Every structure is written in structure tokens, then in C-alpha cells.
Amino acid sequence: MRRIIMSGAYQSTSAAAVTAIVLSGVLSACSAAGTEESPMSTEQSVSRPLSGQRVAAQSTLKRSSGASTPSSNASLSPSVDGGPLVYQFGPVISKVKVVPVFWGNNVDGTVKANIPGFLSRVTQSHFYMDWLAEYSTTMPGGTNQVIGTGSATAAITISPANPTANHITAEEIQTELAAQIDSHVLPQADENTFYMVYFPPLQPGDHITNVGGHSCGGADAFCGVHRNFLHGSASIRYAIIPDFGPGSGCDVGCGSNTQFNNVTAVSSHELIEAVTDPNTVGGWRTASNTYEIADTCEADQDTLPGSSDVVQLIWSNRFGVCTSGYGPGNVVGLGGKCIEVPGYNTTNGTSLDYFDCNGGGNQVWRANSTPQLTGLGGKCIDLPGYNTANGAILDLYDCNGGGNQAWNFTYAEIRGYGNKCFEIPGGNTTNGTGIDYYDCHNATNQKWTFTTAGEIRGQDNKCLDVPAANTANGTQVVYSDCNGGQNQKWAVQPGGAITGLGNKCLDLPASNTANGTGIVIYDCNGGQNQKWVISGSVVGFGGKCLDLPASNAANGTPLAFYDCLAAGNQNWTFFP
Ligand SMILES: [Zn+2]
Fold first, then answer.
1. Which residues contact 424 (CB under 8 A, 6 or more apart)?
2. What's the CA-to-centroid distance between 546 and ligand 1, angstroms?
3. CATH assignment of 408-539?
4. Ligand 1 is an ion; residues with CB less than 5 A from it
5. CB-based contacts of 559: which residues, under 8 Å, 6+ apart?
6. Alpha carbon of 441 to ligand 1 centroid (Å)
7. pTM surpassing 0.70?
8. What is the pLDDT of residue 49?
9. Could you tell me which CATH number the domain at 327-406+550-556+572-576 has?
10. pLDDT at residue 256 in the model
11. Partners of 102 in the β-ladder
12. How much distance in Å is there from the Cα of 32 to the middle of ligand 1?
């Protein structure tokens, strides 16, 4: 069950707004923007796949938190108002700078000891933060911010006027934060500052109240809230994270993990919501303006790769799934999972499977010019015995140059900074037409095939070309008859660059994402405007396709070979 809080009494900016993770028997979330009080509304509950089960081919495919999910949580309600998120032309936070704040000396010892490290690691995590660049605001009319990693300061323990935080309201918390900023106990806020305030245990039955809601219990109970208020000319963005200890009320219903891991998951929820919608109005919100980025994925937790840090999954517009991130080398398919070498087993003949993306080295693939997809141990994705029967299972094998190891991204988009697409403008296939960058719209003039010869061919089989073999920086690439020349040879490099003649990189000039910007070649510099993602079918021997059998996105599903069907279970996105 979901509840919607509409704020009214509190007015900080032109439109007062409040977002919260709301507890209502089960973990639930809520956010709303508005200027008037509104009756609470309830949304229809939708059954959720049980732990270990999955529903494929849904735009709101959910991950469960696996074995740690108790059966009592099996019917948590996923959002019925999931993505996509719509940008409302206000600010985001591009390089978040978290200030952990402890409300007096009695904050939970584990939180005090460990939350600063968690916030530091998670804000700096390329895995968790980098993909949020899809929510950058570089479009016309946007605030021209590119979201990436951030940082956290050391924690600051304040000595508030109400150290026990009993009978405290969000307005009183704001007054306290403003006073602490003015007295320089807390740093001044800039556009990236986000104060995350952790509270001590309250007296039994007491709550922090926020626009009619109550922390950890009572009417419209919440597990966490992020808000903002104006202080002078500064917008102060902050979160309220109550104590989750036994008897708090937040010890149940705020996640199914350990107490501290639930605190970190809720913290990550509020963190990413603040990054993408810091003023709780004007950022990225669902079309109904009801939910923010983390609400769609509530209760879905994941552990960041190589750590024990538990975060909440976040909604990706690009993939239509909840995710904790994608990394270089991932090949991501239906439901946002990754192709992997199970168990890191590089024995020839090991069947490949499909699994939650986790940053592991067994999920990293490289495209080379053969073209092969090489993975762990430098071995290749292989069609055993050239067996082209539908349903043949793919394996990992020593690379041998065989046709059963050749894979071509076919009828694929080339997407980059700001998530737009390479395009033949107007579908004009006349030789010499300049290639430009445009909103992706799934049309033929945005589909490209990477050939065995190293070409990138377009809609009528012509080639991406450096005109007159002119390698001057800024030369716009064009569409032209294929001629086998070096000025039509391209290589996809680890990290996302696509290099061509003279070892120059395909480049979006000045990171200008305006529709119609010409794609050029330029000295490679590692910039985001030279990183590309390839998304489409992967075609192998005999013209058949890499396939996720029966659209079964369950962890461990083996990868197969099948007639190409242009279906979602044959669409793969490669992060080089
Ligand atoms: Zn939320």
C-alpha cells in the first residue's frame, strides 16, 4: 500500500514539497510535490514475484534481495507508477557532497562508526553513480548538469537544542540546521551539499513528525525523508534518517536486512533521490509527479561489488529496470542483467549464463576487431561445434578465429553522452551526408551494424566514413559507399571510445547534445563525449542471434543461439 503525502503547512520554496520513504505495514515509499494539502490516496497493490522467481519482459522488473528476504515480504507492492521518469527542468545535484550529521551524542554506535565510510564509498562508487549520467540535464532548457560521482565529508556531531529529538518536527530540524550552519558547526551549503541527519533513539512511542507523517510508526510512517528549505539564498537539502534500533518501529518494515544494512539502503534511497530531485520538485519524477527515482525500486537491495555496502536499487529509464549500476565491459540484456562466466570457470566448454550485474570480472567482455567478444581469461564467446540449431547453448572457449566465435552488433544504436543516438539525418543516404546526434527514436536511420571488416554500416549498407581521409580534429564523419579504405575502419575500445583513421576518436563536439550536432573525429581524450554504448542484436555464425531463452531473466539462465527475431530477449547493450 502506498500513501501520498501532500505538503501544505510548510512552505520553503515556491512549491513546498516533501519526499519520504513511508512505512505502512510493509516498506513503502512516497513522495509528492504540491502546495495544498490533499487527502491521502491509496494505490492498487500489485503482486510481486517471490524471492527467486522472476517475471520477464516487464518494464518494472524487480529484483528481490534474495535469501535475506523473509517470506512476510513476498507481497511487497512494487510501484504501479514506475518509470519512466520525466525531467521537469529544475536542478539536479551533479557531484553530491554529503555531510553526515549526528543529532547529538546518542546516535546508534554502529551508525556513528560506519555510516561516514559507507557514504564516502557509495558517493565515490563509479558502479553506483556513473550510470546516473543518463539523468544529466544537458538537454535544451535543462540546467546543463552532468551527474557523476561525489564525496562525503567527515561526520559532524551537533549539539542541538533538543538533543533527544523527542516531539520534534521537520520544521524544528530545519531551524536547528540553519543555526548550526550560521554558527559554522556545519559547512555552508553549495549546489552540491546534502546534509544527511542521523537521529538517536526516541522515547518509546515518540516520533519525528513531518507534514502529518511520523518516523517509524503511526500515521504515514516513514523510514527516511529528504527535503529542502531556503536559508538566505541557499537551498538547504537534507535528509532525516531516524534510528532503526529495536522497538523504534523502523526495526520492522524498513527493509529485510540487518539493522545497519537497512539504514544504508534507506540512506542510498534518499541520497539518489536528492541527486536527481534535490528540491523535491523540478527534478526527475514520474509523469504523475508522484514518485521519485528510488520509489519504484523500494525494498530492492543489492550489495555493491567488492564491498559489503548495501544499497537500494535505482530506476533506470534507459533500461526500464531497477539497477545498482553497470560497469565497463558489461553486456546487458532483458531485465538489466549481465552475461557472465559462471563461477569464474574458464575451462573450455563452460556454458555462459545470465546473472545480476555485480561488477565481477566474469561479467567483463571486450570487443575486438575479429570481431570477437572476449571475456575472462581472454577466452571467447563460442558456438560449440558450429551447431546452429535453435536453442544451442553458448560457451566459453579458447579464441581460435573461427566463424563460430565471430559476433557482430547488428541493427544497433550507438548512444553516448546525454543518451542520444548516431543518426543519418532525414534518412538521407546520399554519399557525404554528415552524421549527427539526435534523440533516439528507434528508426532505421539510427541503426548500425559493426561488420567483421571493422566497418560501421548504416541503413542501406553504406559506411561511416572520414571524408577525404582528413584526420584534422573536428572533421565531421559522413555516410558513404563502402570502399574498404582505412577511413572506414573503426574499433571499439575498452572504456567506450570508438577509434578510426589516425587513431582519432568519434567525438560529440563540446558535449553539445542538441539535436543535429555533427559527430566528428578528434584526438582521444577519455572524455564522456567520446564514450559510446552499443545496443542491438548480436549476430553470430549463420546469421543467428545471441538469445536469452524464453525471455527468462532468472539468474543462471544459460545463453543460447536462435533465429533472429528482433525481440527484447535478443537486444543487448554493450558498455565497452
Ligand atoms: Zn523516495
1. 433, 435, 445, 446, 458, 459, 479
2. 37
3. 2.80.10.50
4. 29, 31, 273, 292, 294-295
5. 339, 351, 352, 353, 354, 393, 394, 546, 547, 548, 549
6. 30
7. no
8. 23
9. 2.80.10.50
10. 85
11. 157, 198
12. 9
